[in-house]
Amino acid sequence: MQMPSDGKKPVRVLLVGFHEVMRAGLRGFVGTRNMEIVGECQTIPCAVATAARLKPNVVLMEMLLPDGSGVEACRKILVENPAIHVLFLTALDNEDARIASLFAGADGYLLDNIGSAALLDAIENAAAGLSILDPLIFPPASPKLRAQSVHLARDSGLSRQEHRILLLVAEGKTNKEIGEALGLSGKTVKNYLSTVFQKLNVSRRSQAAVRFTQIISQ
Questions:
Q1: How many CA atoms does the CB half-sphere of 93 hold within 13 Å?
Q2: Confidence of residue 1 (pLDDT cuts 50, 70, 90)
Q3: Is pLDDT of 190 > 50?
Q4: Which part of the chain has CATH 1.10.10.10?
Q5: What does DSSP assign to residue 3?
Q6: Choice between 209 and 215, residue whose per-residue pLDDT is larger
Q7: pTM to 2 decimals?
Q8: Mean pLDDT throughout 168-197?
Q9: Domain with CATH 3.40.50.2300 in the chain
Q10: How many Å is the Cα radius of gyration of the chain?
């Protein structure tokens, strides 16, 4: 693929899983954006080895692979290549699977009935380091959940400002949007998030969001 006139490098995508018809469809509409599919795999060893060799920006993966779980593949890929972003695209609407995928380090979990434009947006956002949380799966926090989240903040030792930031992360807000909402600079938001991640014992914003959702729903 040639570099576009704006000079931006294409988002490099590795496909893991999916039947041939699905892969053909993905190849077709990925080409409508500044993206390219650099490889395709069906098994965990292939996914891990190919990700290490090609260093894609995003791995788009099914949850159920012929030789095991996509969660296992995700974990192994990120151990060797933590800069890679993993997105799950699956028909499996299962809470345990969603939580497991995000705690394995995935940047998002999408159901396969998502529209093509929304999926392409998700791939671009994942490549930019944003968590991708399907609003049908992780809806914005209701007033009741916001109230319950106070207990999470207290138990985790979060300050009031850290708690506010975590709520916005759980709603899928970007650092810029969080900064605008709270009157903070992007750098300050990033520093707060580092502290929040440490207190919650997570390493990615998607993990923090699912940790929030998991605990306050108990």
A1: 8
A2: very low
A3: yes
A4: 143-216
A5: P
A6: 209
A7: 0.68
A8: 86
A9: 11-133
A10: 18
What is the tens place of the pLDDT at every residue in 75-109?
Answer: 899 888 888 999 999 998 887 787 778 778 788 88
HSE-CB at 214 with a 13 A cutoff on CA atoms is: 15
21: amino acid identity, one letter:
V
Under the phi-then-psi rule, with left for phi > 0, alpha for psi from -120 to 50, and beta for the rest, what region is 143? Answer: alpha
For residue 139, give the nearest of 177, 108, 98, 170 by alpha carbon: 170
CA dihedral 28, 30, 33, 39 (to 10 degrees): -120
List of residues 6+ apart from 141 with CB closer than 8 A: 149, 167, 170, 171, 216
Q: Quick one: how far is CA 88 from the chain centroid? A: 8
Two structure tokens written together for 179: 């900064």
User: Under CATH, what is the fold of the domain 11-133?
Assistant: Rossmann fold (3.40.50)
